[in-house]
Amino acid sequence: MNTNKLVRLNSLFEKALTNNVKLIEKRELADLYNEFINDGRNDFKPNTVAFPSGDRRSVS
């Protein structure tokens, strides 16, 4: 996330804390917040475990 978006996110957040934010700014704040939270998460591979597809075993 670039610096301009972080500054805007902070500004809208401060405005929201004082209950001085407009509806369209609430939407922008939500979008920027989601972008901030998800920034860099696409670089990670999901943690999956591949089990062999052979015979099934039981614990008994």
List keywords for this structure.
60 residues; mainly alpha; 2 helices; 52% helix; elongated
Describe this structure in words.
The chain is an all-alpha fold. The chain has a domain at 3-39. 52% of the residues lie in helices and 0% in strands. It is built from two helices and no strands. The radius of gyration is 21 Å and the shape is elongated. The protein starts with a helix and ends in a 22-residue tail after the last helix. The mean pLDDT is 84.
Oligomer class: single chain
Note poorly predicted spans.
Answer: none
Residue-averaged pLDDT: 84
Total number of beta strands: 0
Distance between the termini: 53 Å
Shape assignment: elongated
- The radius of gyration over CA amounts to 21 Å
**Largest beta-sheet characterization:** none
Name the helix and strand elements from N-terminus to C-terminus, one letter apiece.
HH
Query: In percent, how much strand structure appears in the residues?
Result: under 5%
User: How much helix is in the residues?
Assistant: 40-55%
The number of helical segments is 2
Name the structural class.
mainly alpha
What is the secondary structure topology, with strand pairs?
Layout: H1 3-17, H2 23-38
Helix pairs in contact: 1-2
Short description:
This protein has 2 helices and no strands. The protein is mostly helical.
